[in-house]
Write a structure and sequence with these properties.
The protein is an all-alpha fold. It has helices at 8-18, 22-30, 36-46, 51-61, 67-84, 94-117, 123-134, 139-152, 157-166, 175-188, 197-209, 214-219, 222-233, 247-261, 264-274, 280-283, 291-301. It folds into two domains: 1-152, Serine Threonine Protein Phosphatase 5, Tetratricopeptide repeat; 175-303. 46% of the residues are buried. The model has no long low-confidence stretch (mean pLDDT 94). This is DUF4034 domain-containing protein.
């Protein structure tokens, strides 16, 4: 499994964050335009342990800069979700929820300040989508945050992924809303867009929400394979597929979706496209402890 998803820049910025080297982190971020590419790099920093211990000093040292505020906010979003863990709500303690919400509120303060200082930046709104879901701001506010992101970057994969999660039944949406959003996003996107992943994710999310037996029955419907095939043809199998940040995760998602439907030949095409590189998401839905094991098992079943 490649945590850097085939992108050496992600590994370099993670190393700088682990070393508490703000200058190196800042320099690498400023080399990228404020777009999806920068969002991916900030996410790598946000997922790095102990950043919360040194990033406040960077905020104080650069009082007129939005960048350390953005990084601090992003880290506190991820740090908050670390406190909550991925357990179902009934298995999360009151103390965990309190820490979770406190960290998210701190994150929102920094992210809104960054957004005010740099009104054209998309990254603050991407992370505000994540904090908003944790703080249960509701569908209307969540939609406004998504719209703020896509006004700045219309086909931002991460922003669309977050809105898809918001529309899941488990977060107060519905399967119908989720699928409609994924389908519309794909059709509105240019041919070859990575947004085709949303269709595959929506089917995976509904499969996860169903009881044993009903889940297999759902994915066994001919219409599911047709939907996935259309999405793949407009995305990863299109001659103009955009190999931007996150493309490996998109291929891995289609590989998992076709594996779950039992379409081995189509799954094999997707596995071939991954070049043997595993992304933790979405395979951690099948094996949180060892996503690579889930990948290997399903790749073998597809005859790869």
């Amino acid at each position: 499994m490649d945590e850097d998803q085939g992108e050496p820049e992600i590994g370099r910025i993670r190393e700088a964050a682990e070393a508490a080297d703000w200058a190196a982190v800042r320099d690498q971020l400023t080399e990228r335009p404020e777009s999806e590419d920068r969002t991916w790099l900030i996410t790598a920093v946000a997922r790095t342990a102990n950043v919360e211990n040194w990033i406040p000093q960077a905020v104080e040292a650069e009082p007129d800069s939005a960048l350390p505020l953005l990084v601090a906010g992003a880290r506190h979003v991820n740090w908050g979700w670390e406190a909550r863990t991925g357990a179902r709500a009934e298995h999360v303690s009151r103390d965990q929820f309190q820490v979770f919400h406190n960290r998210l509120r701190t994150a929102e303060k920094w992210l809104y300040e960054a957004a005010e200082r740099e009104p054209q930046w998309v990254s603050p709104w991407y992370f505000l989508q994540m904090s908003g879901r944790g703080l249960q701001v509701g569908q209307t506010v969540a939609r406004r945050r998504f719209e703020a992101a896509v006004r700045r970057h219309p086909h931002h994969l991460g922003a669309h992924q977050q809105q898809l999660q918001q529309l899941c039944d488990k977060w107060g949406g519905s399967h119908e809303e989720m699928h409609a959003f994924a389908t519309q996003a794909l059709r509105d996107a240019p041919a070859g867009s990575m947004l085709g992943q949303l269709v595959a994710l929506a089917h995976i999310e509904q499969w996860l929400a169903l009881d044993s037996g009903a889940d297999a029955e759902y994915l066994g419907q001919p219409g599911i394979t047709a939907s996935l095939t259309e999405a793949a043809e407009r995305s990863i199998w299109h001659e103009d597929f955009a190999y931007g940040q996150g493309w490996l995760q998109v291929y891995n998602t289609f590989a998992m979706a076709f594996s779950l439907t039992g379409d081995r030949d189509l799954a094999k095409l997707c596995f071939d496209g991954t070049n043997g590189i595993v992304t933790a998401f979405p395979w951690n839905y099948l094996d949180a402890a060892d996503p690579a094991a889930a990948y290997r098992e399903n790749r073998a079943a597809a005859g790869r």
